[in-house]
Specification:
This protein has 1 helix and 9 strands, in the order αβββββββββ. By secondary structure, the chain is mainly beta.
């Protein structure tokens, strides 16, 4: 074996190994659902809602997703790595309202971007706010001294 053959042999082994290394596979998504918790809120503002999503996969792999809101806002793209088939749970939250009275009906939906685009039905909620949440601000005033 010549010197040139000895130098090429390790390089061929490394290239051969690189071709056989496993890569992150895309999961096969079979369903996407979302629900709002609570679905109805009445009380002081702000109202807090938790959106719970379920992405069902039939094989391990990588899924990218984001949340879309009824006001047009889009959440950041997030990545989920499923290590086994089954339901993968994801969530986000939305706080609405300030110090004024507010009635609002909204929704959020879960959008799978990859491996194949798919989205949930909107998770709908309703909110009625009256005033704001307050901490106790009652102060005792000192009596005015008499003259």
């Amino acid at each position: 074996m010549t010197m040139a053959h000895r130098l090429c042999l390790p390089a061929l082994l490394v290239v051969g190994l690189a071709w056989t290394l496993p890569s992150a596979a895309a999961a096969h998504v079979t369903s996407v659902t979302a629900e709002a918790d609570p679905a109805q809120y009445a009380g002081p503002c702000p109202g807090h809602f938790k959106m719970k999503g379920r992405i069902t996969v039939s094989a391990p792999g990588v899924v990218t997703y984001r949340w879309q809101r009824s006001d047009g806002a889009m959440g950041p793209v997030e990545t989920l790595t499923a290590t086994a088939p089954g339901v993968q749970e994801v969530e986000t939250s939305w706080a609405l309202g300030d110090q004024r009275d507010l009635e609002f009906a909204g929704w959020e939906k879960l959008m799978v971007l990859t491996p194949v685009p798919m989205e949930s039905e909107p998770a709908r909620f309703q909110m009625t706010c009256r005033g704001c949440r307050r901490t106790s601000t009652r102060r005792r005033l000192a009596p005015i001294p008499s003259r």
